[in-house]
Design a protein that fits this description.
160 residues; alpha/beta; Rossmann fold; 38% helix; globular; Rossmann-like_a/b/a_fold; Cyt_trans-like; Cytidyltransferase-like domain-containing protein
């Protein structure tokens, strides 16, 4: 297990500060990552291309069913989802988010890029959406929201 990749918010903040001092670009990905599939792998590989360090924020179990996009029950618990991501070579660090969205993580690590799948882009039309709030936060912190072309694969479809 690569649990050395799983960090607390404080640890991730310290690492980010170190990487920033070395002029390394930090990329933040965020999601539930339940039932990891090729679409997730593609998303993370593409995200990594935007910088030197890929940090992944995983949605805490307690926020999953409150998500504006979750349409099914959680299959795997947060410890499993976090551990799987830590095993991926593409992922440098993983954090379990203790908030519904990635904004606390953004403030701690000041990412250069916040990446999302293109299938979430339509949520920007709703100024009350979590993604809209994420966009405002990343821009306030000097970073950029980037959309990666989503593959037409979803966990819900795989479970049918």
């Amino acid at each position: 297990m690569n649990n050395f990749k799983v960090k607390t918010l404080k640890e991730l903040g310290r690492l980010a500060k170190k990487f920033k001092s070395q002029n390394k670009k930090i990329v933040l990905a965020h999601g539930a990552f339940d039932f990891i599939h090729w679409g997730h792998i593609h998303y993370l590989k593409e995200a990594k291309k935007y910088g030197d360090v890929l940090m992944v924020s995983v949605v805490n179990d307690k926020f999953i069913n409150k998500s504006e996009v979750k349409k099914r029950p959680l299959v795997f618990k947060q410890k499993t989802r976090t551990s799987w991501l830590a095993e991926l070579q593409t992922v440098d660090y993983v954090i379990l988010s203790n908030a519904p969205g990635p904004q606390k993580v953004m403030k701690a690590i000041l990412p250069d890029f916040y990446v999302r799948g293109s299938d979430s882009k339509k949520r920007l039309k709703n100024k009350n959406s979590g993604l809209w709030q994420d966009k405002l936060e990343i821009e306030k912190l000097g970073g950029k929201l980037v959309f990666i072309k989503s593959l037409p694969i979803h966990s819900t479809d795989l479970l049918k």
